[in-house]
Design brief:
ATP hydrolysis activity, 24% helix, ATP-binding, ABC-type transporter activity, 10 helices, Rossmann fold, alpha+beta
Length: 471
């Protein structure tokens, strides 16, 4: 049986919101309540377990209780009620510079911080070079940490925290201050630790990192655990909630709670007010027929996210063959590398719009943006679109993707109050596959049209050059 590393049981954290310093003193110091004191629950009855070797991501809006939960698990904050049990050596990177003495040099802080994490001096000395090399701040290692930038500080803290190979690693969005190269380096390090059995619990607003790295994800909102499940499903629920407000937001919260934190029934539900075409978007009369040879009915994007309309509604998204007249032909969702296609969708405008533009983007299965196209430059936009108009956006592209399954997202925007703003967007509007080829040995996801060959430098050969055209 897999060992439980972290067990959170009915944890609640309550704070009191005092009106004056005197009220705080009387209540906290002497238990005197001159007036009723308003309470705020940062966490409300949160329970879950994390097994050994498991990686769990915490997502949620700002103020949802993510950091508070990590502080309680790391034993730097006491819960108001409930219990937390942690089994194994824990290392936590909770905030910038925590555990460092700003007056100490980087070298001194490595020994100081690692000692607090339970390592002996000889163990730290044996790993010192690895820590400095990973942090990439060798030229400044003997300077006081107070002279470091925020990026340098988090580099050093992450390096120390992970190089000691903890049994449990907790990270609270500290990587956000690092540059992209260092963030990728950190994700690779966490993946390596995970492969060696380290339990990881981390907060991130980066959906790509959560999907790629985590076995599970947990959605917190207003201190409550709403969803605990597969990362891609949790991220979709999180994104839906992120763009909701008012009554829609409250209704969605209640729906998630009613399904006991399982988002799948809600992900499968589509916007049905105007009918559905099976792809989740409203259907209109005269939709083009599918090409039976290159259309798979099972390729339906369960992760589709329809954002709230703000003046326009997108419908009928599809990938089509190009007709002899250059217009969209039959619908397809099984594509061939090297062929040209059209992504088209209709937009119905509910209000007047100015400088209207359209966009499309392609993503991998784990949410990595692969590329896209847009019509948002001044010469490409439509100056004025009256309310009631229907426009079909068309994006012609050459499929340079290799065999696999992918998603396409579509959008429409306009200039409002001097800035370009989205009128409507559908994330993962389309799901499609690229067919495999026996005669092509490309790797990865994108065809770069490599022409691989070799040149003989010395030793002699019958031919000086041999090249294989990969097109």
């Amino acid at each position: 049986m897999t060992q439980t590393r972290i067990a959170v049981s009915h944890v609640t954290k309550r704070y009191f919101l005092y009106r004056t310093a005197l009220e705080r003193l009387l209540h906290a110091g002497f238990g005197v309540k001159a007036k009723p004191v308003r309470a705020f629950e940062a966490l409300n009855d949160v329970s879950f377990e994390v097994k050994a070797g498991e990686c769990v991501g915490l997502v949620g809006r700002n103020g949802s209780g993510k950091s508070t939960l990590l502080y309680i698990i790391a034993n730097t904050l006491a819960p108001t009620s409930g219990d937390v049990a942690v089994t194994g050596r824990l290392a936590a990177l909770l905030e910038l510079g925590s555990g460092f003495n700003p007056e100490f040099t980087g070298r001194e802080n490595i020994f100081f911080y690692a000692a607090m994490l339970g390592l002996k001096r000889e163990e730290i000395a044996a790993r010192f070079e690895e820590i400095v090399e990973f942090a990439g701040i060798r030229d400044f290692i003997d300077q006081p940490v107070k002279t470091y930038s925020s990026g340098m500080t988090v580099r050093l803290a992450f390096s120390v925290t992970t190089c000691i190979e903890p049994e449990i690693l907790i990270v609270d969005e500290a990587l956000a201050v690092g540059d992209e190269a260092f963030q990728r380096k950190c994700i690779a390090r966490m993946a390596d630790l995970r492969s060696r059995g380290t339990t990881i619990l981390f907060v991130s607003h980066n959906a790509r990192s959560v999907i790629e790295l985590c076995d599970r994800a947990i959605l917190l909102d207003r201190g409550e655990k709403l969803v605990d499940g597969k990362p891609d499903e949790v991220i979709v629920a999180y994104r839906r909630m992120l763009y909701m407000e008012g009554a829609r937001y409250e209704a969605y919260r209640q729906e998630l709670k009613a399904h006991n934190g399982d988002p799948k029934p809600l992900l499968l539900a589509r916007e049905t007010e105007n009918g559905s075409n099976g792809n989740g978007a409203p259907e209109a009369q005269g939709e083009r027929q599918a090409d039976a040879a290159y259309f798979d009915e099972s390729l339906k994007p369960e992760s589709m996210l329809m954002h709230e309309p703000a003046g326009a509604v997108i419908s009928e998204p599809a990938i089509c063959l190009i007709g002899s007249d250059g217009a969209p032909g039959s619908r397809v969702n099984m594509l061939k590398r090297g062929e040209d296609y059209i992504v088209r969708y209709r937009v119905r405008f509910e209000e007047d719009a100015r400088d209207v533009g359209f966009s499309v983007s392609m993503q991998s299965m784990n949410g990595v943006m692969l590329g896209g196209g847009s019509l948002v430059l001044a010469e490409d936009t439509i100056p004025v679109v009256p309310a009631g108009s229907v426009i079909e956006a068309r994006h012609t592209f050459s499929c340079r993707l290799l065999a696999g399954t992918y998603f396409a997202s579509v959008g429409c925007s306009a200039v409002k109050e001097g800035a370009r703003q989205p009128l409507h967007r559908i994330a993962d509007a389309l799901m499609f596959s690229v067919l495999p080829e026996k005669s092509y040995n490309g790797r990865g996801m994108v065809d770069f049209a490599f022409r691989s060959g070799h040149a003989v430098i010395s030793g002699g050969a019958e031919r000086d050059m041999k090249a294989g055209d990969q097109e």
